[in-house]
Structure formats: C-alpha cells, structure tokens
Amino acid sequence: MFLPEEPTADWLRATSIALTFATLVVAGLLALLDAGAATMVMVVLSVFFALGVVFPRAASPTYRAYATVLRIVARIVRAVAELSCFSVVTAAGLTTTSMVEERGARDSGWTAKGSIAPDSYANPFPMPGPAGAGGWVRGYARWARATHSEWALGLVPFLVLMRSAQETQDQGLRGEIYALY
User: Fold this and answer.
1) What is the pLDDT along the chain (181 residues), one digit of tens a residue?
2) Rounded distance, CA 59 to CA 12, Å?
3) Would you give the DSSP letter of residue 102?
4) Dihedral (C-alpha) 103, 125, 161, 165: value to the nearest 10 degrees?
C-alpha cells in the first residue's frame, strides 16, 4: 500500500499514469453531471499529471504529496479497523458468548489441566479430517463453529485490512549492527 521513499523513474511514471487516469475518470463523471468549470479543472489537472509520464523527474513533488496522503489515509484506515476489531470483541464479551464464561466475583478463570496421553502432544487439539484440508480460512471457520465463537469470523476482514495498511519496516542495515561482529 505504500510507495518507496526514493522513487525510480518507473515509479514516477506509474504514479503519473494512475493519477492521470483517476483525474480523467473524475472529469468524465463531472461532465455527466454538467459541471463545466470543475470538469475543466480536472482536465487541466490530468494534463499536468500526464507530463510526469514524459518527464518523470517533474512528477517528483506530486509523487511525494501522493505518498504523504497515502500514509495519512493508511493511518486512518488502520485506526478504524482496530476500533472495529475492539468493538466486535467487546460486543462479544458483553453478550456473554462462549468467549466469556460466567464465574463468581471471587473465582478465577484458572482451571487445572488434566493429564493427556503422551501421543497427543504433537497436536493437543486435533480436529477431525485431514490436516490442513481447505487452508487456514476453512480451519478457522471450523474452529469458530466448533467452539461457538462465530463472532470471531467478523474479525478476519478487519485484520486483513489492518495488515494491508501496515507500514513495512526499513530493510536496510541499522547503525548499531557492528555490535554483532
């Protein structure tokens, strides 16, 4: 979701093409709505963006502004997705689903673990069927149904959204790497 800090000419051209196409689409929609002045502004803006295809370095300020806006939007998307996840978990807890067990005020949630057969340590919670059948999504859905935690399925889209809006870490070497040698 994020653009490189130091763009190559290809990144600058690609961003120029994308912005040109987007502004032309908006100009077409405005033309359908008979918004003359706004349509002309969008056409002029699309010509400005199209210049970046021919002269990539001229598109550098536009690219940097676009990257900044993209980071701000990603932060907002991440915050909304986190808030939505917490809301789903809170709602599930307040409605006393299987996630929360009722217990007395002085009781703890700790339960003693019984002994299991030594051959079941490889997978202490085996599911029926072949291992890995259908991928992790089906396994997760099976688990949610088996434990009466269907609400957990509502978290998956938000978690995917949070992951896609996450900034990647810089893969370069840090300054204190010399301490390893």
Assistant:
1) 567 778 888 888 888 888 888 888 888 888 888 888 888 888 888 888 888 888 988 888 888 888 888 889 888 988 888 888 888 778 777 775 554 455 555 666 566 677 766 665 565 555 565 555 567 778 888 888 888 778 788 888 877 777 777 766 555 544 555 554 4
2) 6
3) -
4) 100
Q: For the chain, what is the radius of gyration of the CA atoms?
A: 26
Q: How far is 27 from 21, CA to CA, in rounded Å?
A: 10
Contact between residue 11 and residue 4 where contact means Cβ atoms under 8 Å apart: yes
| Cα distance from N-terminal residue to C-terminal residue, the chain | 35
Distance CA 2, CA 67 (A): 7
Amino acid at 68: T
**What torsion do the CA atoms of 62, 68, 71, 73 make, to the nearest 10 degrees?**
-80
Q: Is the whole-model pTM more than 0.90?
A: no
CB of 14 closer than 8 Å to CB of 57: no
Q: Contact at 8 Å (CB) between 97 and 155? A: no
Tokens of 9: 């000419």
